[in-house]
TrEMBL record:
Record domain HDOD: where: 134-283
Lineage: Bacteria, Pseudomonadati, Pseudomonadota, Gammaproteobacteria, Alteromonadales
Classification via Gene3D superfamilies: Hypothetical protein af1432
Protein name (Swiss-Prot/TrEMBL): HDOD domain-containing protein
InterPro entries to which the protein is assigned, alphabetical: HDOD
Superkingdom: Bacteria
Amino acid sequence: MAGVHIKYINDADFHWLQAKRAITQVVASVSGGLKPAPVAALEQQFLQQLIMGTPTNTPVWDDPEPELEAVAFKLEVEREAALLRIAKKQQNKQLAQQINSQLHMSLKTELANQLASAAVIQRQSPVSDKHLLLLELLNSPKLDLGSLRLAVASQTWLVQDLTNMVNSPVFGARRPQNSDLQVTDLKLVLGYIGLDNLRLLIPFYICRHWLPLGHASLLWINRKLWRYAQIQGVAARALAVLHEQDGALLYSLALMRQMGTSVILGIGATIFEQLRGNWLREASKARDKELYDAVAVSDFPAAEICQLVSEHCMQLNWQLPQWLGFADSELVSQLQVLQDRDGFAQMPLTAQLAAKASCYAQSLLLEEANQLSFRDKQLLYSYYAMSEQELIRLQGLNYRKLTLF
């Protein structure tokens, strides 16, 4: 027929168009509103990758505990040796499996009991009211170096971190020319850094201090968790600039979202090491080599701890500061909103931007692990209403360092 042009498409193009149409329909159905099951499932998948994923040499700047890698390697060598001894006898394999299962069940029960007690959590947590007071001061419109110096001085570890920063080669350009002297006076340290940079550096050091350090079983998890926090922080600052919001406030909020996870992981690792240590001593006392080896090869109960992190971390993010007397804090209020009970669309802008930063960080890390399809990424971006402008801004950032000065 004249004037009619028919375009034929091959099977591959037809299936691609069908898939694209299906993705568009699903994405449109999850925008805004209450969090749909597919999005919740993807976020649970990310948490499992974070805690249960295979240990890898996660690229992380400012490694919080570089000296622990040798200890973790030594423990793994000892565990491998015990596994070789056990492999020689089927009976020993069964014993190892039973001990491992019992240890995991005992830990899960004890950890659940401890997480049910506010007093126990506060006693075991590295988070203190002094840390939260510092974060509050940093976001006060009346912030001045005098009041900040008094608060910083009470935290010896923080004074050391800031002093090391000022005396580092990275900071050299900010120091007076030809000055080889080490700066030790806290007033000078804070003055060199400046208020704007302190609003970023102090939350950085405080949230790093909250990581459950010193546990060989958490070495790789800590590195992944810290990198996740860093990416969120950088993304949050960029989104704040784009939307003309307070970048330092959003940076603090992004890092503080790891508080609950850090606390639960730390308590869980402590229980695991105590249980395992007690059982090893009992086996040694009884001179039971087979039982000793069975306990020695017990693995870290990542799956059980991951489940409890999933159940409690978001609520603990704001509950713990409330227990410490910061119920009226703007940061704590935003953390409570970020528990996402009413849906992303109902959040205030500050919380939305923090949630977007987390969404982008999760998608980036899942892609690195080859665990995120194009369709799933679009689902995440749609629920969190990621605009094209926001994605362009975020894709061009350096997530390997905190840009200061």
